[in-house]
Write a structure and sequence with these properties.
The chain is α/β, with parallel strands linked by helices and about 375 residues long. It is about 25% helix and about 20% strand. It folds into 2 domains: about 10-285, Aldolase class I (TIM Barrel); about 295-384, Immunoglobulin-like, CATH 2.60.40.1180. It binds alpha-D-galactopyranose (GLA).
Amino acid sequence: MHDKFLAMTPPMGWNSWNTFTWNINEALICSAADALVETGLKEKGYTYVVIDDCWSLRQRDENGRLVPDPEKFPHGMKFVADYVHAKGLKFGMYSCCGTHTCAGYPGSFEHEFLDAETFASWGVDYLKYDNCYKPQRVDGEILYKRMSLALRNCGRDIVLSACNWGHENVHTWIRSAGAQLFRSTGDIQDNWESVKRLFLSQLDKTAYAGPFCHNDIDMLVVGMHGASNNEWIGAIGPCTDLEYRTHFALWAVMGSPLMIGCDVRNMTPATLETLGNENLIRINQDIECRGPYVIRLGNNPEAQIALVKPLSDGTLAICLANLGDTRAELSLQFWDLGVSYAQGVGLEFYNVFTKENEGAFRERYVKVLEPHDCAVCIAKVTRF
Ligand code: GLA
């Protein structure tokens, strides 16, 4: 959304993996780009079209260069990049810091500078960089620093999307290594337990948020409805539309990149409404990129959670989430937010789902939430 600097705010776009895995080709990628434009998602900020694993031949060419599979990409990658760029979108690809990608194609280990040049020559704007087949003797930190340096010197602005699944305390060194985003979790699946597990695993990392380097909790499963070519991703589940909405809200407020994983050529109105929620996107893309603070609520602190994210205009984005399996009343005490009742200060609530003002409150905000539902509001300081 903020084009001037590379990934100042969390990248938004679409990635081929969750739904299509190995079954990718030129027509699919081009039609996904078309769909982002036609559905209005591009206008909302979803600009990256990213090809994940399985795009290359099994061998490099005689000069050591990666070669796109001519059956899947008959006109090569520059053609796809040009097509995506002509739509006003940005083009992303995938490689791996190890000797092979997770699906067994050539990885970039010991070829980082050459591969960065190759990606630049094709017009790539974003590189997802995975962690499979990493030689045990080499620290991941070195390898991510290496690709970062290669990309920063390849003659083209290319976002580095590090994907080491939260290994090796990645959050402590990845910003200095130069990446713009870092996967902090194992792979997501299209079910509520997976969404909940990944979200909970990052609650102690929210202080590592900030512009130019974003905690990637993994690609979205919103709207997949079990339709994945990847049996593991769709193994149990899928999520309900309500769970997809909560998943999207949590990722948005946490400041995760928002990479769509469903088939964007074929979305239901509910999916489009969830992915297109302008208020949640605005919260996610707030220029300060502050991570939320976390307040555990009531008598079920494992499942009843408030996220409070200070926005650059002085308001607070507040998400109350009922992760539990029973209906619950969640009560947020303003004392915990620094709102001073004694000084006549309260909060006025605007609901991002109903798009209605809910009025001003002095001491607390209370919501009864169904299992797996959440409420997200933008709260503005007011005086009584
Ligand atoms: C790993 C990553 C996934 C995906 C696959 C591709 O599992 O975490 O996001 O890129 O590899 O093989």
